[in-house]
Each structure stands twice: as C-alpha cells, then as structure tokens.
Protein 1
Amino acid sequence: MSIVGKSAHSAKFRRNRWLLTAILSLYFIYTFLPLFYVITAATKSNQDLFSTFGLWFAADFQLWENLETLFTIQDGIFLKWMANTAYYSSVSAIGAALFATFAGYAFAKYTFFGKKLMLALVLGAVMIPQTALVIPMFLMLSNLGLTNTPLAVILPSLVFPPGVFLMWAYIDDAISNELIEAGRMDGAGEFHIFSSIAFRMLMPGFATVLILAFVANWNNYFLPLVMLNKPDMFPITVGLAQLYSTAISGTGGVLLFTVVMTGALVSIVPVIAAFLIMQRFWQGGLGAGGVKA
Amino acid sequence: MAVIELRDIRKAFGAVEVIGRANLTIDDGAFVIFVGPSGSGKSTLLRLVAGLEDATAGQILIDGADVTHLGPAERQLSMVFQSYALYPTKTVRQNMSFGLEVARLPKAEIKARVDGVADILRLGDYLDRKPRALSGGQRQRVAIGRAIVREPVAFLFDEPLSNLDAALRVEMRIEIAKLHQRLGATMIYVTHDQVEAMTLADQIVVLDKGAIQQVGTPMELYQRPANLFVAQFIGSPKMNVLAVRPDGSALVFADDSRADFGMPVPPSLAHIGFRPEEVQLLPAGQGHLQGKVEVVERLGSDTFVHVGLGALGIITSRMPGNVLTISQGQPVGLGLTMTQLHPFSRDGIRLS
C-alpha cells in the first residue's frame, strides 16, 4: 500500500482548514472588540457613553467635538504629549534596534571569550519584565541627576533583550559565514563588512526589531511614570492616565471620559501607520541569489 | 605569481586535531588540487592558506615571506567559495569592484579592470544585474571574476563546482582549465570529485584524516598509489583489492585458492590491488580466480562487469565498448598479470 499525504482536496484537510478559520475568527473578535469599543466610545458624548450600547455608535456623532476638546484641553497639552511619545519612542527604537543588531551580529558570527555566558544573560533578561527593574533604575538615574530628562526614559529603553535574541537568530540564518569570509578576502575590515554588506541584508530583521521596540516604547507606561513628574514631559500614556484620574476624582471632570477615549484612539493611529510603512521592509528574499541554498 | 610553502602546519579545534603536521610546497604557476573524502581536512588546509583559519602550529610562506600571522587580504590571495558568496545587495559590477574599492584604487583603473575581466568571462551584459537575477553558472563566473580583478598572487577554489548541475560542471571545469592556461597563476583547488582532480591538476594532494597521503601528478597517483587509501580513492570504478599471503612464488587468497605467477613475491605482501582495466575476463575454469557475473553496467563506451568471488567479495572489470558476450549469472574466470599488480603491506603501504 502506498502512502498518501494530505492534499488540499482531501476531506481531512478541508475539515482542518475550517477549524483553523473558526479558531482564528474567535481570536480576531477577541482582539478587535476592545479596539472597536474605543472607536465607538470616541464618537459619543459623555452622556451617550454611559447610556447607549457600548459596541455601537450613538445617534449623536461627537467625534469632531471630542477631538477638538482633546487638542485644546489644558492649552493643547495633548499635542505636547504626542510629540514627547514620538520623540522618546523613535529615538529609543532606533537605538535599541541598532544595539540589538550589533549584539546579534556578534553573537551569531564571532566566537569570543564569555560568549555563552553573555548569551545566557541576554536570554535570561528576556524573562525579566522591565517593571521589576524600574525602581532600581530610577535610583541609579536619580543619582546621576538624569530623572526628569528625556534620557531617563530613553537610556533604559535602549536595552532590548528580545531584539538581541531575534537578531541573533535572524543573522545566524540570513548571513552565511562564506559571505563574511568573502569580504575578508576582499580586504574589508569587520565593521566595513557589517555596514556595507551585512546590514542591508538584515533590513527585514532590523525593521522587525525596530517596530517591536517602537511599539513597546510607545505603549510604555510605568517607566515614564516613575522617571518623570513634569506634565509637559509626559508621554501620552502617562498623560491620559492623569486625565483619567482627574475624570474620576475631580468635580466637573466627568466630561473627560470621552476625551480620554478619543486620546486613546488618536494615540494608536501612529502605531498602525508605522506598521503599514514598515511592512515593505519585511518582505524577505533580500538574501536570495548571493548564496545558493 | 607565487610559491606557497606549508611547514609543519597543525590545526586543532579544541582537542580535535584536524590537520597534523602537513608539509607541502606548491610551485609557482602550478594547479594543485586537494582531494579527499569529507572530513579529510582538505577545506581546512585551504582555509589555513587563505588566512581564514589560524594555524595551531607551523609556518605558511608565500614567496619565502612568512605570512602565518597575516590576515586574508594581506596575503594577496583570492578565493572562490562553494556557495559563490556574492554580495546579494550589490550588482555584478559592485561585487567585482568591492575589493578594489577597499584597496582604494583609482576609479578609472577599477572600471578598466572590471570591464576587462567581464570581457574574459563573458559577463559584459550582466554587469548591472543583482546576483539573484543570474543563473548558477553566471553566478559562478562572477565569483571567479571577483577573484581575478584583484590580480592576486594565487587563486584558491573551495569546491567551486559542486553546486552546479553535471553538464554545467563539465563546462565550467574546462573554463577553469583555460583560465589557468591564460593567467598562468598558482591555483589551489579543493574538491571531493576525483574526476575534477584528475582532469585539472598538475599536482594532486590526497588527504585523509587530516594527513597528506600522497602528492603527485594525476598519473603518478593512478599508476603508483603510495598506499591503499590513495589506491582506492583515485580511479573510477575504484581499484580492486584482495587480501593475500605469499607462499613462495604463489599468492594464496583468503579462501585458500592459489595463483602461481612463477615470479618472486615480496614476503611482506598482504594485499594486492589491480585496476578494473587490469583484470582480464576469461571463460570459466581459466585464469587465477573463478567467479560469477553479478551485475553488468553498460555505459556504451565501456562495460563494467561486477564478478562475485564468494568469500573474497566482488571484483570489477572494465572492458572497452559494449561487450555483448557477457550476461548476468554467467560463470567466468579472472586473469591477472603479476607486473600489473599493486603490492601493499599489512599496513596498506605500497611495496616496491
């Protein structure tokens, strides 16, 4: 009897495919519902927010009014927060992605003393949440007099162990040793090989780490909360939380719930835009052709 | 153009010795091929010459100058890699000029050299393409071009043809031979393909288990292999080997059958070897050994007859042309000629 593999036409394959679609649909609903709630809530008036069905739009479409309030509240401080977030996250993300690429390249392509130990430390660091390190880091930066400066948020964010891990695995696969050796035979120094041959081949990996670090920093709440106490230095996360706390505690602050929701909606737009822009860099196959598989 | 000398070269990775005390002199302009099975150390030896690996002990000299501690580029060698190792984000022209740009040659000279080499290798139409838009053979030519433009003192090839299909491999083999005639440069070439070794080399270096087994011209290795390993590694189909013990002027095989040649036999003889073309197929009952045809392979130009000798194993005989008188299952006799036998000692070393 011959062995027949599962093909696209077999009943079992089709059954499995339906099951997969069903599970993924459930997952999609699970992730999309909160986002949808934010979208609908941002279009409502404060009264409608509590009196209408949460997952659908109210009759009174208030999005423009909410946006206007958002950008004018406290002399337009929301715009300042957005600029802060953009500044902290882009500098941190570019720095983190660069360092992750350097480290990953070294781990993947060089042998050096203590490599195994250092790699183990990086992998171990992936498991430690930044939250656990924020207080010691605060004390450290406080001693250096760096709290309440952008560096207080940027410096700790340059260390991105998951990015190092990702680049290590990616570079190990994407750049053949022979390619580096060809560069050496051509007389190029190690940094020249990295910058003029390897780096362009690493763009898909670099872009992935960049976007991951960017999103992680964009959404980071606890680190800036601890490091910064001047409202005009806050990123959106901390600023919105502050608005929210005035909304629930302050008199007359009731009005602000929808503004917080609108702020949340506005704050995710750049992240989505970043994903769409970076997408083309993920298209692999850059390494194809130079080295025969 | 260069004379390359290896003196007592050793290479160990940790406790594992990969090359043990290799001594070798490669003459100026010679085409030398390192051949051996996988794990024999042939690639490591090439990489030691290239400077991509550091020798654990010993010296490497190029034209009398000690280069043991110099980097790859300072040795002024070029290398062609098995995987081509072209820079995928650069065009063919950029690939070839990269090394020259690193060396800060004037732009006009870089252009002249690249154009000249592209002409020789028929790459002129592809200079603005990326490697992924080229066929396997074209990529290999770019890799060779990249090696030539640097005008090195010697070329190193690490199994350059093993990623190509059979037809292209033959074509590129001839191109490399022509290139060697044209440039007259010293070339060291690593392969596990003994046909490449036999056809291209001025000198073959046979390696096994990290040691040089024999150095010689292809015909020296074929006609006078220094030991059993070389005897069986060079030549296709490989040399037949039978265990024997001498008894006066006769040889006694493992199954106690005897062959008397009426000539003195060295007393330390333990194995005899003979090439497939050195054994004569005779009617059953004649000759020195009796057996039965097990498989007949017809190549058109040759017929390979595999004869089973029971406990002694299988002997291959090569006959020119398509021999129609032989068929499977047929009992045959095998005739040997004493002067054509390769005698080996118990340790596999050639006697005489």
Protein 2
Amino acid sequence: MEDTAITLLLVDDDDVDVEAVQRALKHARIANPVVRARDGVEALDILRGTGGQEQITSPYLILLDLQMPRMNGFQVLEQIREDERLRTSVVFVLTTSQAERDRLKAYEQHVAGYIAKSNAGADFSNLVEMLRMYWRIVEFPPVETAV
Amino acid sequence: MGSHNEHTGDGAIERQKLVRAGGLHWVHWLVVAFSFLITLGAWHVSNEQLTKRIEEKFQREADQAIEMVRERMMLYENALWGAVALHDASDSVTYPEWVTYANSLHIDTTYPGINGIGVILHLPSDDLTAFIAEQRRQRPDFNVHPEHSESEHWPITFIEPAETNRAAIGLDMAFERNRHKAIRRARDSGDAQVTGPISLVQDAKKTPGFLFYAPFYRGGAKPRTIDERRESIVGVTYAPFIMQKLMKGTLSRQNRQVHLAISDAGSVLYDDTQHGDSARQQPRFREKVSIGVYGRTWDFDITPNERFLTATSDNQPLVILAGGIAIDTLLFGLFVLLSRANRRALAYADAVTHELRIKTEYLELTNTELDQFAYVASHDLRSPLEGIKKLATWVSADNADQLPEKSVRHLEQMHRRITRSEHLLDDLLQYSRAGRKDYQSHPVDCGEMVRGITELASLPAGFTVDVDPAMPTLVTPKTPLEQVMRNLISNAIKHHDREDGTVTVSCRDRGAQVEFEVRDDGPGIDPRFHEQVFKMFETLRPRDELEGSGMGLAIVKKLVERYGGEITVESDRDRGTVFRFSWPTKWPEKS
C-alpha cells in the first residue's frame, strides 16, 4: 500500500477550501500527494496529461466540487464516465450544495460518495478521517500500467 | 394547483347555469304567452258582452220606436172615436157644432200629427144633389168632387181647421180606390181603419200620408153584422195624416237613437235615413218588423243611427286589449332586460375572473421567483461566509501566541457575527421554504406532537411545558404545524428571563378551526412592539446578547397564514406572553 501511495486530486476553485483540506491532511499527518485543479477543464487536463499538465499517476482519488467556472463538476463527471481510460475513477463530490437534485445527478454518474462541506466536520477533520479509512480498506481499480 | 382546477370545474358548472339563466327561458315565453292569451280572452269576453249589451239596447230602442208609433196612432184613434161619440150623441151634427167641437180639441197642440179632423158622410148616389143643396145653405161654395162612376159617395163634409184643409172640403172618398177601399173596410168592420199611403190633396209637397177613419152608425151603436153595418152606416170621422208631421215631437229623429223607415205594401210612408248615411248602408243591427196597423200592414225597418253608435260606443274592450298588450310588452321587456343584465353580469364576472387569473398567475410567478431568489441568495452567500469563518479560525489558530489581546477579541467578535450570519441565512432559507411545499394531510394528534417537540428540544433545567390533556386530533400537514409549535415553544424559553419557567399549550374549538394558545410566564412583550415581532429580522434585544435571527415569528406567521389562520400576541407588559393562532381542523387533501 505504501508503495502505491494514492494521489488526491482536489478540484475546487475555492482556495480557502483547498487550503482547509490541505491543513486537515497535514493535521492528520497524511502525506499522500495532493494535486489541485481550479476548474473542470484543468482537472481533465491533469487526468489526461493534456494542456501542458503533467498526468496524474494512478491510483488516485478525486474530490470534486460542483460549482466551478468554465466547466462545472457535472460536466467533469460526464467526461470522465465517457472516457474509456478515466471511467473507473473514484470520485467524491465535495460541495456546499445539499439540493436533492444535485445529489441525484451525482449518484447517477456513479460517484463513490456525496459530501456536503457543512457535514465535513470542523476544518474538514471528518472528511480527512473518512479518506484515511477509505483508502486503507477500499481496493482501488487496477492500475493501468500494471495490466 | 389541483384545487384551483377543481374550483374552475365547479365554476364552469355555475357559469353554465348562469349562461342558461342569461337567455330567455321557456318559462319566460310561457308566462308571456299565457298573459297574452288572457289578454285576448278578456278582450273577447268584454267584446262579446258589449255586443250583447248593444244588441239589447238596440232591441229596446227599436221596440220603443214601434211602440211609440202605435201609441200615437191610438191617441188619434181616440180623438176619432171622440168625434164618433159626438155624432152618436146627436142625430145630426151641424157645421157650427163641429167647428166648436174641433176647436175645443186644440188640434195644433194636442194632436200635432194630424192635419185636421173631419167628418165624411155616406151618401147613396140618389141623395147627392139633395145633400149638396142642404150643405150650400150654410156654405154656398160647398161642392162634392171629383166626379166618378161609383154608386155611392163619401164626401168630406166637415174638416177643421178649414183654412189649411180647404182643398179637401167636399172631396169624395169614392173617387180613388185606396181611400174608398179603406172607408168601406171601416164601415164593414166597425173599427178604425187607415188607408194605404196617399198624397193628401191639402199637402202641396205631396209627401206620403194616409187617412184614418172611424165609422159611426144610425142609432149610435155598432151593428153586429156586416149587412146591418152597411145598412145603417152614417159616415166616418176622419183625420188626414202627413207622415212627416206624425213623426214629429217625441218620435222626431232627434229623440231617437234609431233610423226608422216605414213602408206599406212596398211604398214608403216614412224614411228618415239621410242620403249617404253609411250606418244605413251596412248596419250592424237591423230590425225588420211588420205590424198590423188598423187594417194595413206597416213594415218597419229599423237600424241604429249615429246617436245610437255614439251612445253605445264603448272602448272598454279596446282599453282591455291595449292595456293587456302593454302589460305583456312590459313583461317581455322586463324579461329581456333581466336576461340582458344577467348576461352583462356574466360578462363582467368573466372579465374579472380573467383579470384575477392573470394577476394570480403573475403573483404566483413573482412568489416563485422571490423564493428562488431567497434560496439562491442564502445558498450562494454561504460559501464565502464559510471561507471567512475558516480563515478567521486559521488566523487565531496559527498565531494564537503572537496576536495582541485586542486582535484576539476582535477575532472572537468576528466569529460571533459569522455565526449569526449563518443563522440568518438558515432562517432566510427556512422562511423562503415555509409553505412552499405542499404536504400531505394526515391525522395529527396534537398533544402527542407537542410532547414530542418538548422531548426533542431538551428543555433547560427548570423549564416545564404543560400540555392541555384535551388536545385535538386534526387532519392536517404535520410538518408546518409542528414547526409553528416548535418555534413558539422555543421562543418562549429562549426569551425567558429567569432560570425556571412554565410554558402552557392549550387549545379551543372554533368550529372549522381550532385556536391554539402558547402561554409563557416570561418577561412579556411591550404592546408597542406587538406589530413588530412578526416582521422579518426584528428582534427586541441587542444582537450580541441573544442569538436570534428574528425570523422565527415571521416564519410562524407565514405558515399560519399559508393555512388560512391568524396569529395574535397578547401581553400586559407585566409578566407572560400569550400567542394564539388558528389552524384548520381539516385541511383539504391535495388532489
């Protein structure tokens, strides 16, 4: 497990939230690499290694915000599920929206979980705790290079 | 929306009824037709009665005219019999005696109908010369004329007044068949008799007339057989009539309401019909009677004259007809007006309904937009607020030991305001959601509900909530009612100024609604602020002293009004506050 450290892809336009997650990880002494994308376009570039971005290495886990400029979270989800190489990605939605509509739409795109920021605990501590448990016990999809 | 459609359905039926009422119903037509028939009937009956009345009147007038002619004839007959009596009383009446007698009759005034009264003596042919000679002793110019071939003579011997009857003196009645025949009839019957129509010799105008004879015999009495009468006849008293004169006086045209035409065997005796008299041409009534008059038959032809028509002209049937038709027309007009008013009202109602629908749609749209705005605004405001909150936390966490005491306090104040903003946003969201959702109605045990609220609210120690044991079970959406109750109860506790207190929840039946009461023994609310407490963002205490967004009662009011109720606050400023709100006992199921 240690060999294949899971990379965390944070897709969020809110710097404060991103820093909050990073602070929480640091506070929890989690040293997994963190890559940050400011919107959907940047996230897809990172996932595909396009647009001058360095491609993210598997295994990875995506924390996806829904409301973002240029390309929102749902559009990103759609692209991922249509992309042969990306469709197995593990995606958590991390958003301020608690609307039923949004929840339904997200799960229709097979997200691993839908997390409202307001429920993520003080300073995202619950979120980080969940992530720690998650990648400790959950088997990720097989890494492409290993096939 | 469902209930709205339902109302439209009911409305459509009601409207259809009004549309039908807006036209002329068959009942209206029936009433008008019936009324018209009654009018026609009344007119007909009245007309019949009038005709009958006129007929009776005409008959009376006709009978009266005939009767008067008869009476007049009898009057003259009596005069003649009077003269006969004179002869019966004296063997031979001399000329002076006769003059005296005739004068005493005052013919001019008493018997205006006759031209005079005279005596005709009967003479066999042989006696004529001796008779003339005898008469000439007193009247030298006396002569019997004209000559004829009959074997007997009936000369007019005396006639008074002599002046106007000069032409008749000595006239021999046997010279002419008509006169002769009638005089023999009188002789044979012993009764008074008249001639057929003749022109009197003394009438220059030669208008129709007749002679009236009454016979007298030797010995005074009327012999029993015709032979004896012929044997003993002396003469006749006579009166010449000019018909025009007979009809004067009470029988004159002016005193009658009928036209009178009398003819004898086809020749006209009298006819007062004026030339071109239309009433005569096509008379509505006509009476033709033949009356035996002293040996002759007079044919009476009686028709109404103008005076009759005027006297009997009665416009009652016409008045009835015109009045009835006027009433019918008014009735019909009234129906038309009513139905038109109905149609107009309907059109107006339609217009107003249409206007109202547009306004309602606009209002609904505006409300939806407002709700959406409040939702989006509170939602979008939340993210930056969250950021600020985190940043403030990090500033104090990262630099706790380096910050001056003043900055630490500022950061704390910042935190409190951030928290309040969050509450405000939460409540704004709740307010915008309040009543937006249509909940299903269920039977709700209100006592159970209030006890549930109390348990979940985890009351501060020292506080109790007393629930009326007779709380009702309503059929209503539970969530909004529960929210109202919770807000009121928590409000009462939150604003309490002591460590212990009691909140009492009770209920009263108000028919279609129940009235809930939430009473506390807190500090009370100054009546000056009673209006304010239900407004958004209004609190009566300093912001930092109590965590209150000021939305609680606004939400309560909105919910109560959403379900057709009312909320009031009562407080005497001494102790305690009472909130009363009404809630429907049965909220219609969503259809």
